[in-house]
Specification:
32% of the residues lie in helices and 20% in strands. With 420 residues, the protein is of the alpha/beta class. It folds into 3 domains: 225 residues, 3-Layer(aba) Sandwich (Peroxisomal Thiolase, Chain A, domain 1), CATH 3.40.47.10; 32 residues, no CATH class; 152 residues, Thiolase/Chalcone synthase (Peroxisomal Thiolase, Chain A, domain 1), CATH 3.40.47. Strands 1, 2, 5, 8, 9, 10, 11, 12, 13, 15, 17 and 18 form a 12-stranded mixed sheet that branches. Strands 3-4 form a two-stranded antiparallel sheet. Strands 6-7 form a two-stranded antiparallel ribbon.
Length: 420
């Protein structure tokens, strides 16, 4: 059964809404700038990709539900509302029993102020007395405090908002989550248990807890200039920038799309996953990504040379980009040095599960518009990558086939083949 994408919704620092995102991508305009929401005095990276002007209430029919939504959930619900509107998927017009949701989410942290009073109740003489937590601290915690931190809540709220009573699931596989959600939605439609699925992923790494935690690691850029940071596959890359965002998609059978008169962005030919497994050699070779790409191409029935472009994971760390580039050479052979490659995190940052979703949105828009956005801050090719990276300026498409990939730091990988 043919499955197509009929709706795209995006919330990102590079634009809220698909048109705003596409304008930024074509203009080479990044959403990365100084981090403003929290103090940055002691932070090694003072940059972030923050979304300005986003109000979740404008996307909700029942605004009371916002009381139990974290930032991640709000972003996911907003993206899903935009995707449903784009696909003209209105409550009451379709069978709710045949509409499902599969959504990706990551680690959702509470904000510090939520626990200040509870922590103070257990503090005595600069020490923390855990035994007092049950009796004294719990009285200062909101009874529904846990709900905004649960990763299954984006899928739940989206289902409530759109009266989607069909298959429902949550994927928590970091950057791979969005494409894995796409895969599950694809299978649900092909199995005949749903006519339409809302899929995607959301994430925010700008919670003070997350900023502090990730700042302890080696992977954040130390660049102070937002126009120079986060350059995937560049010889002088030094890491990524924290961000926030979400993207959602309406997918359905080709027959359903034609019957509804919906605009079709592209057809999803295949999605496949893989994991590195045990052993340093497997990780260094990115064997999970090699297998994911090979399986996706085999399922789609196409040869590597037919691909018009690759939308890369492009983490912009030395190790991750070397592994990713090496996997392309293993899976695609000599075509790896010819196929145009773009890495787009330099526009909207890195934000766990949501990053791959916004990148997928860019791939779909590229196929629709016939152009591929350039990779920002790619100036000096890394000889250890040997890829045909589209640098800074957009390039015209020469094929209607695209490969989108994502890989987590632990080696879980996924690849999707999409055709205009």
């Amino acid at each position: 059964m043919r499955v197509v994408v009929t709706g795209v919704g995006v919330v990102s620092a590079a634009g809220v809404g698909r048109q705003a995102l596409w304008s930024s991508l074509m203009a080479g305009r990044s959403g990365i700038g100084p981090l403003r929401s929290i103090p940055t005095g002691q932070l090694p990276c003072k940059l972030a990709a923050e979304i300005e002007g986003f109000q979740a209430a404008q996307f909700l029919r029942n605004r009371k539900l916002q009381k139990v939504m974290s930032r991640d959930i709000e972003l996911g619900v907003g993206a899903a509302a935009l995707a449903a509107e784009d696909a003209r998927l209105r409550v009451g017009d379709i069978d709710p029993e045949r509409l499902g949701v599969v959504f990706g989410a990551g680690r959702i942290s509470p904000t510090p102020h939520e626990l200040v009073r509870a922590a103070a109740a257990c503090s005595r003489d600069a020490s923390f007395e855990f035994e007092r937590f049950d009796e004294e601290a719990m009285a200062h915690i909101y009874p529904l405090w846990l709900l905004p931190q649960l990763p299954n809540m984006p899928a739940c709220h989206i289902a409530i908002e759109h009266d989607a009573r069909g298959p429902n699931n949550t994927i928590t596989s970091r950057e791979a989550s969005a494409l894995l959600a796409l895969a599950e939605g694809l299978h649900a439609i092909r199995r005949g248990v749903a006519d339409q699925m809302i899929v995607g992923a959301c994430g925010s790494e700008l919670n003070p807890h997350d900023v502090a935690r990730l700042s302890l690691g080696p992977d954040l850029t130390r660049h102070a200039d937002p126009t120079r940071c986060h350059g995937p596959f560049d010889l002088f890359r030094d890491g990524w920038v924290l961000g926030e965002g979400a993207a959602a998609f309406v997918i359905e059978s080709y027959t359903s799309a034609v019957r509804r008169g919906a605009e079709i962005y592209a057809e999803v030919l295949a999605v496949a996953g893989g994991a590195d497994g045990a052993g340093d050699e497997n990780a260094r070779r990115g064997i999970g990504l090699v297998r994911a790409i090979s399986a996706a191409l085999r399922q789609a029935g196409i040869e590597p040379g037919e691909l018009g472009h690759i939308n890369a994971d492009g983490k912009a760390t030395l190790k991750d980009d070397w592994i990713e580039a090496g996997a392309y050479h293993q899976a695609l052979g000599s075509a790896a040095e010819r196929i145009p490659v773009t890495g787009l995190k330099s526009y909207f940052g890195t934000f766990d599960a949501g990053s791959g979703a916004v990148e997928l949105a860019a791939t779909l828009l590229a196929l629709k518009e016939g152009q591929v956005p350039g990779t920002l801050n790619y100036e000096t090719p890394d000889p250890l990558c040997r890829l045909n990276v589209i640098a800074n300026e957009p390039a015209r498409l020469t094929s209607s086939l695209a490969l989108k990939v994502n890989r987590t730091a632990l080696g879980q990988s996924v690849a999707a083949v999409i055709r205009r």
